[in-house]
Structures are given as C-alpha cells and as structure tokens.
Amino acid sequence: MIPRTAQHAHGRRILDAFLAAGAVEVAPDILLPAETLLDLYGEDIRARAYVTTDPVRGEVMLRPDFTVPVVQMHMAGGAEPARYCYLGEVFRKQDQGDTRPDHPRDNEYLQAGFELFSRDPDADAELFALFHGILAPLNLDATMGDMDLLLDAVAGLPLSDARRAALAHHIWRPARFERMLDRFSHPAAPRQFAVNGAPWTGQRSRDEMHARIARLQADAHEPVLPTIWRERLHRLFSIAGPAPGALDELSVLAEHMPAIAEAVDRLAARIAAIAARGIDPARVRFDASHGRRTMEYYDGMTFSFISAANPDWPPVASGGRYDALTAVLGQGAGGGQGRAIPAVGGIIRPGLVAALC
Amino acid sequence: MLKLGVPSKGRLMDQTFAWFAAHGVTLARSGSDREYAGTVAGAEGVQLVLLSAAEIPRELAAGRIQLGVTGSDLVREKLAGWRSDVVEIAPMGFGHADLVLAVPACWRDCETLDDFAVIARDFRAAHGMRLRIATKYHRLVRAFLSAHEVADYQLVDSQGATEGTVANLTAEAIADITSSGETLRANHLKILPDALIHASQATLFAARAVADQPDLRGFLTRLGV
C-alpha cells in the first residue's frame, strides 16, 4: 500500500501537467445530492455509490465520480471552450461476489481528472495526447474505442425506430443485446396475453400495458432482419488490433455498412490527429467493443490505459467523449432546452501511478 | 469447545433438533423454554447456542460460533464474499423458500424476465423514475439482475409486509422469499417463472477458519456428514 501522502504527491504532479495544458482547477463537493445525479450513471456506479440521508438535504451520496459535478458546474455558467482539472477522492462500494479476492479493490481512491468542453473536433486528440504524454514513462497499453461507430451501426440497421432504439439502449449489456438481435433476426412467434381476473394494482397504468401489447402485436409483423446484418454487426464488434490495421478493416466493412462510413472517417481523422501529435498509431490498440465495457455516459471516443504487468488492476487511466450527458444535464440547468456542449474528459488514478513508479 | 448456533424459535428450531436427532445427536433446551441455552447429548465438547436465524451468519463470520444452522439465503445476503467466511456442510432438507421476483398479476404482458426488462425501460421513460423493486435482499437481487443485465430499476428497502408495497404505490415489483406463493397471490402478485433468484433451505454451515480442525471434523463425522 502506497502511503496516501505519496499518492497525493503523484496526483499533484499530474494536476500540474493538466494546469500546464490550460486547465482551471476545480474542487466539487464530496457530499453530492443523490437522487438526480445517480440516475445519470449506469447501474454499475449507481449500485456502488455510498448513499446516506441528510435531515435537510434529503438523499446525498459520497462523490462516486467527478464528471457529472464538473459538467454541472460548467453548465451553470462556464464560458467555452473550457478546460477543467481536479484532484480528489471518489468512493465506490466493492461487492466482491461469493469469494473475497486476495487483493480487493479500493473503496476510496484518488482521481486526477481533466475535462474539456469544446466544439473543436480536435478535442479528442488533444485529450488523448495529453494523457498519453503524462503516462508515457509508465509503459502502459493504450486502447481506444468509439461508441459513435457502434451507435451509428445500430441506427443504420433496416429495422423500425422502436427496434433500433431498443438495441441502442442495450448496447452496454451484451447478452441482452445479442438476445434481442437474435429475436429480430427470426420471425416472431405470436404471443397470447391471457386475460386474467386480477384487479389492477400498482403505479404502472393499464394504458401503459395496452400500449406495450399493441407494440408487441405490431412488432410481430415486422420484417425479419436479414442475417447478413447480424454478421456485419458481429464483425464490427470483433475488430480489435493496432489502430492502422483496425482502421483498414473498418473501411472495408463501411462499404457494406454505409451507416458507419462517416464515423470511420472521423476515426481516421482522429488517428491522424493523434499521429500529428507525435504518437505512433501502431502502438495504440483500437477495440471496437471497448466502449461497451465503460461508463454508459460515453457516446463517442473511449480510451483506457492498462498496466499489462498487473492484469487484475482496473485501468490506470480512462476517459472518453460524453456529449449526451451534457445534453441531459443542460435540460435541467435552465440554460435553454437541451443545451448541449460537446465534451471529452478522463481520469488518471494517482494511487496506481505511484505503485508503478 | 465447539459452539453450535441453532435458530432459537419455532418450526425451524424443532426441525433442526429433529435433523440432529436423526443424525444421532440430541439437542435440547436447558431449563425453561425461555432460556436461550441448551445441551448436546451424544457428542463431547459441543455447546448449543440458540440465536436468531438472521444473526447466525454474522456470528459464524465473527468466529463466535463454529457451526451454525440457518437459511442459505441469509448467509449469501448478509456475508459479502460468504465463501471466504463459511463452508456449506450439508443442506438439511427443510425450511425451503424461494427468493423470487414478483410483479402485479394484472401485468398480462409480463411473463419473463425479458418482458420485465422492457417494462422497466418503458416505465422509466413514462414516469421519469426507475421502476422500484421492494426487497430486503439487496445484494442477492442486485447480483441476479446484474448477471441478467436488467437495468432501469431501483431497489427500495422493505423489511416487512413487502407484498403490500405494490398496492401502496411504494414499489412496482417485489423480490421476496416465498414457500407456497399464497401471500403473493393474496396481494395480486405473480411470480416471474424465469426469475428464481435463490432456492433457499436450512443448511449446516461451519466457520471457514476452523473448518479443518480435528474436533470439528470429528463432530461432523459423528453426524455422518
């Protein structure tokens, strides 16, 4: 266990690099309102937040993550473009399943983070290169993903809007996604909804049920998704390897999936921009499914830096693009309806950096 | 001295006593039936401790008792990483109860966990909040739903009369222990058949730290388990 003071010292050095990159340091509260914020995280973080009750403020939680409070802070009146950085603890419960691991993950650890609000398409490369530079001495494996590609691929399937939306919703839940895709790829078996004498109970209304039954009945007449589309999706999900080769594979696939062509072009531009910042793209791994294993608020580029020597560790650093999150928070910020700001950000764990030094 | 923790009340205690008797060891309450101590006849060096079934997992993990009889559901729910703390010695064949997910019987369109997942998503969109599941088995329910990739729900704590929460509009579904399903039916709820979260029964557990010690092994051999 690295002493906390040493972890902080590493954190300060990372923060200095963020400050040198033009960021303003911010310090969000540790005790945050739970109800509104928790809903924005995926189930994973939601279940792991320490939630408690304050007699005046109601449900509050120990900060499980910085991104949402920093976005809120920015939406409340920050100018653009804006760069913020921070250093502080986050708190997450670690339920370990049936058997406790020998090295349980920390419940409380430092994050040094950088968030960039900018309409400049080069923001992805700026963020990735900044992290790459700070972490360069540690010999980590960099992996990049792109949720844009996957979401565009789903949006381009020859399916009804409802079916496409359902697939997109479950993109972070691979087994459920596969089952749904499988169902759409076969003729739907007609379903009977036997009438029973049970009295209506609970908050879900009759209308909601009838609407779903009508949807299911209409859905039964939907044309079957030709299996070629499932194969193409699987091919897309499995593309992983050094970025230049992966990009070639994606370009070939885009000829059969025109919906991803634009996202592939953007990815190519991003990789070129990263190369222009002095990073060898062949040393960056692109994994099309990477973003399916990250936080649900990422909707564009995702990345992580892993220590190959420590396979049981979480990523030393991770981040990505989260435009949709700013749109959701913008609705509540009173800054006009759906005020969205393109945003990217990431965190480095100084405790893991300290352990590697 | 080995301490054996046994549920202190009712049917569960009687059935535990009967199970041990069938295995050649006579357990009995000492003194009045209000006293929470007991005797063990037929085995040397074993002391009987009568406890609430819900406290037995914690007492085993803390090492204050070395053997204990309790529901397999309680051990899994109350001990995070339970296999690190206790060893399952023998299922005892009584105290059967299933931890199930139940929804209003009037939801004709909800027959499977997949239906439930879609309804949860629709509910969240329509009501602006996640569908609430009332339960006291937070860890088991969360682990089950996470393994089955159900999202868009939230757990609300209910320590009793959980079946009533749906009619009281404090939850849309419940996850609770049932043996006959009667209380569920009386409250107009139905079980989702593919959402059996845990099939529980009374089980003899040993504290892992002492599970290999000769006196404990000797007693288990005596019981023939």
From TrEMBL, chain A:
Residues bound to L-histidine: 65-67, 92, 111, 115, 293, 297-298
Parts forming coiled coils: none
Record key words, sorted: Glycosyltransferase, Transferase
Record-annotated Class II Histidinyl-tRNA synthetase (HisRS)-like catalytic core domain positions: 9-333
Lineage: superkingdom: Bacteria
GO cellular component: cytoplasm
One Pfam family linked to the record: tRNA-synt_His
Any GO MF annotation of the entry: glycosyltransferase activity
An individual GO BP term: histidyl-tRNA aminoacylation
PANTHER family hit by this protein: HISTIDINE--TRNA LIGASE, MITOCHONDRIAL-RELATED (PTHR43707:SF1), HISTIDYL-TRNA SYNTHETASE (PTHR43707)
Name this protein carries in UniProt: ATP phosphoribosyltransferase
Organism, scientific name: Paracoccus sphaerophysae
High-level lineage: Bacteria, Pseudomonadati, Pseudomonadota, Alphaproteobacteria, Rhodobacterales
Automatic annotation (TrEMBL), chain B:
GO MF term (any one): ATP phosphoribosyltransferase activity
NCBIfam families recorded: hisG
Keywords (A to Z) from UniProt: Amino-acid biosynthesis, Glycosyltransferase, Histidine biosynthesis, Transferase
EC number(s) on file: 2.4.2.17
Highest taxon of the lineage: Bacteria
InterPro entries found in the cross-reference section: ATP_PRibTrfase_cat, ATP_PRibTrfase_HisG
Entries under PANTHER family matching the protein: ATP PHOSPHORIBOSYLTRANSFERASE (PTHR21403:SF8), ATP PHOSPHORIBOSYLTRANSFERASE ATP-PRTASE (PTHR21403)
Reaction catalysed by this enzyme: 1-(5-phospho-beta-D-ribosyl)-ATP + diphosphate = 5-phospho-alpha-D-ribose 1-diphosphate + ATP
Gene Ontology CC entries for this record: cytoplasm
Protein function: Catalyzes the condensation of ATP and 5-phosphoribose 1-diphosphate to form N'-(5'-phosphoribosyl)-ATP (PR-ATP). Has a crucial role in the pathway because the rate of histidine biosynthesis seems to be controlled primarily by regulation of HisG enzymatic activity.
Pathway(s) this gene product operates in, as recorded in its UniProt entry: Amino-acid biosynthesis; L-histidine biosynthesis; L-histidine from 5-phospho-alpha-D-ribose 1-diphosphate: step 1/9
Domain annotation ATP phosphoribosyltransferase catalytic: ranges: 53-219
Protein name per its UniProtKB record: ATP phosphoribosyltransferase
Organism, as annotated: Paracoccus sphaerophysae
Any Gene Ontology biological process: L-histidine biosynthetic process
